[in-house]
Amino acid sequence: MRAALVGGGPVGLVLAIALARQGHEVLVVDRDPGPPATGPWHRRGVMQFALPHFFRHPVRQALLDLAPDVWDSLVAAGGRPALPPGAPEEATGLACRRETFERTLREAARHERRVTLLTGHADDVVRERGRVAGLVVDGQRVDSDLVVSAAGRSSRFADGLRAPVEGGSCGFSYIARMYRARHPEDAPAGLPSGVMYADYLAIVFPQDAATTSVLIVRPTFDRALADLRTGPQLEAVAAHVPHLARWVDPERFEPITDAMPGAGLTNTYRGQLDDAGRISLPGTVFVGDAVSTTNPAAGRGVSLGLLQARELARLVGDGTADLRDVALELDAWCATHIRPWYEDHVHWDESLLRRFAGEDIDLEARIPSDVVCAAAEVDPTIATAALPYLAMAAPPAVLDSVQERTREVLRTGWRPPVAAGPSLAELGEVLHRAA
Questions:
Q1: Judging by DSSP bridges, how do beta strands 2-6 and 146-149 pair with one another?
Q2: Which residues does 40 contact at the CB level (< 8 Å), separation at least 6?
Q3: Residues 197/216, Cβ–Cβ less than 8 Å
Q4: Could you give the angle at the alpha carbon of 66 between the alpha carbons of 288 and 30, nearest 5°?
Q5: Do residues 188 and 207 touch, judged by C-beta distance below 8 A?
Q6: What is the largest CA-CA distance in the chain?
Q7: Cβ-proximal residues to 171 (8 Å cutoff; 6+ apart), any chain
């Protein structure tokens, strides 16, 4: 079977390798020509490419299932396997820059027999006799039996084939900067670490090659840091945040990027079906961010995308399955395994925004996941559900069993701890002076 994949990011590349190893001829179309021979790679059309990443354990598991040699290559390229203390090996994630991750995947795809990489813009699908027959790439027809859109959150490719997207802005924005340790002993290791302050989050991401990224996540409605644009400004602000100060110390770390804003962040879901509940054009399938996006601060995007890639590869198999059925089955699978993570994030983010605005937790409503997980620190019985959820080893529904116990903890007056540190308004004053 001939398969054409629109989008050469992590989901598209892993899916291409998997389909090729099942015997299919695969074309990957992407606007970006790939990394240069030397120097940094400025990936076209991917806002989050240089922003912080941590690849959770479903990424490793999907790679071990579909292309275990690619996992080995990621580790050989400097990616650092990271495991929560006391967790089983299958919970291993990867501390790694997105650039290192995609360079390794692209190199693997470039050497994969039956995979062809094409630089160009996918304009539309080709329709014949009510089914897909290929792609139009920069005005030229490319024949294909299966067309998969893994084009990302901002793509409008084949937009008219599905019902409108659900969801929208997650309500948060962030600013990040990447650093490299000046001395080997200062090189970061382990898992990302985050701290909640009164009205924002601060997160540190260990990465490969002795690099780290610092991140401030703020409610979009709070404008105190809205004008933060440059590296020196971010460094001045981060030096006042206890969780970040060490990582921006110029004696120990040198910046290797400017300040990098993250805006337009969304929680969205969109299945395979059109407004009438049908597969509009058999032979077309959507995966990755084209199906769902979640607030990137939790680092679930690539994980959920690769789980979809693995399931689609299983459904396609040797290519004898009816492609209408493939899309229908993938849609049903995503409704069960992907949509709950979207719904979980919508509720989590809405609740957190209200708390940052000064409201208390509504004990009559469903307790949001972040509060349940925080309560596990004071009640070990809650941890039995919270830990699998945090590791993405169990779906959000695993927290249902500890909802009432969490309410009991909250009724004692306990609330998720807020670290001592400056408020956003105080950081805004620092920014004003730095500017």
A1: parallel
A2: 99
A3: no
A4: 45
A5: yes
A6: 66
A7: 219, 220, 221, 349, 350, 353
Residue range 152-165, pLDDT digits in tens = 877 889 999 999 99
State the virtual CA torsion across 64, 67, 69, 75 in degrees, nearest 10.
Answer: -60
How far apart CA 382 and CA 387 sit, in angstroms, is 9
Fill in the amino acid letter for 265: L
Helix (H/G/I), strand (E/B), else coil: 213: strand
Q: H or E segment at 406? A: helix 403-411
pLDDT tens track for 348-376:
999 999 999 999 999 999 999 999 999 99
- How many beta carbons lie within 10 A of that of residue 302, not counting itself? 26
C-alpha dihedral over 57, 61, 67, 72, to 10 degrees?
Answer: 50
Beta bridge partners of 172: 219
Q: Is 0.90 topped by the overall pTM?
A: yes
Task: Find out whether 286 and 293 touch, Cβ atoms under 8 Å.
Answer: no
By the 8 A CB rule, do 422 and 242 touch? Answer: no
**Contact criterion met (CB below 8 Å) for 15 and 150:** yes
* Residue pair 153/159 in contact by the 8 Å Cβ criterion: no
Q: Which domains does the chain have, with CATH numbers?
A: 2-167+265-337 (3.50.50.60), 172-263+425-434 (3.30.70), 362-414 (no CATH)
Beta bridge partners of 140: 137
Residue 174 predicted with pLDDT over 80? yes
Residue of 171, 187, 272, 175 lying closest to 227 (CA atoms): 175
pLDDT band at 42 (very low <50, low <70, confident <90, very high): confident
